Fold Carboxypeptidase M.
Amino acid sequence: MSGLLSIIAVCCVLVFAYANNRPHDYSDYSIRITSLDKNERLNTPNLLRRVVGSKLLRVVGERNFASSEEGVVIRARNERTVEQIKERLLNEGLNEYYKVEETFKTSPDYQRYINKVNTGDTTYHNYTQLYTFLTEMNNLYPNMTEIFTIGQSVEQRNLYGIRINTQNRSQVVFSDQVNAPIPKPKVKYIGNIHGDETVGREILIHFIRDILMQYQTNGRIQKLLDSIDLYIVPSINPDGFELAQRENKNDVDMNRNFPDFITGDSEVVQPEVKAIKNWLSENTFVLSVSFHGGAVVVNYPLDGLPNGQNYNAYNEEAKTSEDNFFVQLSKSYAKAHSSMSESTEFHQGITNGAAWYPLYGGMQDYNYFYENCPEFTIELSDTKRPPAADLLGYYDENKEALVVFLENSYKAIGGLVMEHPSLDLVQVPCNITFETNDVTVHSSGSWNYTLPLKQRDNGFYYKLLLPASYNLTLSCEGMMKKTHNNIAVKALDDKPIVKNWVVSRTKM
Ligand SMILES: [Zn+2]
């Protein structure tokens, strides 16, 4: 008995001694918090001290909390402390106003941290974990990423996204008349509009991690990220996810809450929907996917029937004028997916939205009619909320398709519209019409599409097209009309055709 006690006593002494001998210098494992909003005159150290200071101090201890003009530096004990501090900022609603940087890259802890991030985990990410993940990515790849929020949910969770935009541009997108590159086209992947359809949210997390990690070593990913300006929002219904329900906190199905070209506006526009609409009104996207669950299929526009009926007895399709384009891009995803194109339920793993079941107020038709953005609704899993252990499997099924689908954005005609003789980018509204007689684009052998160029575009246009030869006509307010004929988009093109315009004002 006494032998056992003395062993315990020796152990205690050893543990105590070890704890006491641990290095006290955590300087290579710290975080710096700086204010992002200078106009608000938020004096970072003072405000942090006042609002969260006492709590932070309790977490890290007064000794490890140093403030200066640039912000505060907190010497954290371990990763958990860093997470706790971030959570506190989030809970206090201060996360948007402050930049949190981890500055422990030289420590051995950093290697552990990298390993953790690289392996990925196979669990679901709740709201805080999702934010932590995005922050980790932003810390690891500060020059390629930025975290943004498009607004807030009913329960005031931020609708976080990550923009992946490398500093490099594929050489091909340099303008031939002005000595500047044309901008990269904006493309988006959106997840989790239905809170209980969770696979999209999680595979986007894996996708973000994968493409960022592979950028330096994988030429195909490098080319992709150098060619597009990619926005990924893993969840636009964070409240629904936390509640494990389809609708948002107000019990509204957000994918029925958008203004609709056929049935008009919906009753009360939800804050999340309002946020998405504002975001879309500020950015021109040229390609988009919204990820869902409950089936395995690519669903393409239109979702609504022209007569506004809710029941579609004969599975009638509601086609856009670009139906062939939508079919082809849908197939590109289904074929690159591990099994989607072999579906027994949907021919080739794709379907027209209305032919499956008509719906109104959806995000897909809104994108197309109101913002000229081709959006696809991709259903990823028969089970809406599968066990966490299956998530990596779903990612594997979709991994290749997620890249292939974005590569569709290479087949396009784009460029800048400038004024003669200054070569200033036009600021007036313009329309660019694309016409072709190619039957692969439209079976009637005659097809045209008019793309509006808005003020927000700052003279830049970009239109995804099927391979064919096109005639383009540009008309801008107060300017002479201009045409570019026989511009060929080819099947094997892996870069956009750049066509710039220099237009003159009409004589008064
Ligand atoms: Zn859904």
